[in-house]
Amino acid sequence: DAGITQSPRHKVTETGTPVTLRCHQTENHRYMYWYRQDPGHGLRLIHYSYGVKDTDKGEVSDGYSVSRSKTEDFLLTLESATSSQTSVYFCAISESRSSGGTDTQYFGPGTRLTVL
Amino acid sequence: GESVGLHLPTLSVQEGDNSIINCAYSNSASDYFIWYKQESGKGPQFIIDIRSNMDKRQGQRVTVLLNKTVKHLSLQIAATQPGDSAVYFCAEKVRGGSEKLVFGKGMKLTVNP
């Protein structure tokens, strides 16, 4: 999985509780992404990061926040989880072609989150 | 795990046949394209990519064809094996844009022994 780990791999939580998912990479890639995947929707971008402390919103960012204090870690936080946030969450990394990479995004193994 | 294949178009082939999976893209400014394979319960896995200055690129048992005139991308898998059963989807990157990719919804490939 291109040196990407996600934790936890599975989580069940209750509505209204805070949840933090972690993505860790060993590739030293500049760009990191959080997606959610739901039946009928494919992969949808939540937030992404283009460097330490540099983040931006994706198409489905409401209810989510992110932080990147180190190159290798990208955290996704659900401040108050809702049932509509039940999903599978994937982290991805990439390095731009201009920086010697290929633009390809490589994905982690995913976190299955269930909000009851 | 299984939910990734729900609501997707399905292609069923016999083991040993060749498979062709198609993808239409909408942005003529896209200059980089990727095919991913996603098995049940796993993350998407890179298969092959192609840049817009090429029409064809080959890998091991896979070929990607790019037709920029009609904005069409295809993935050909030769001698399909049961291990090729998965969801396949394409992604495109817009020239000069951000590092974000636009993903297609995918097609589920089922290989019958």
- Tally of separate helices of chain B: 0
Give the mean pLDDT of chain B: 91
What is the multimeric organization of the chains shown?
Answer: heterodimer
Structural class of chain A: mainly beta
C-alpha termini separation of chain A: 30 Å
Q: What is the molecular shape of chain A?
A: globular
Q: Which range does the strand content of chain A fall in?
A: over 45%
Which consecutive residue ranges of chain A, at least 5 long each, have pLDDT under 50?
A: none
Number of helices of chain A: 0
What is the general shape of chain B? globular
The portion of residues forming beta strands of chain B comes to: over 45%
Average pLDDT confidence of chain A is 94
Structural class of chain B: mainly beta
Profile the largest sheet of chain A. Answer: 7 strands, mixed
* Overall helicity of chain B: under 10%
Q: Span from first to last CA of chain B?
A: 22 Å
- The total beta strand count of chain B reads 10
Radius of gyration of chain A, Cα only, in angstroms? 14 Å
Assign a percent range to the helix content of chain A: under 10%
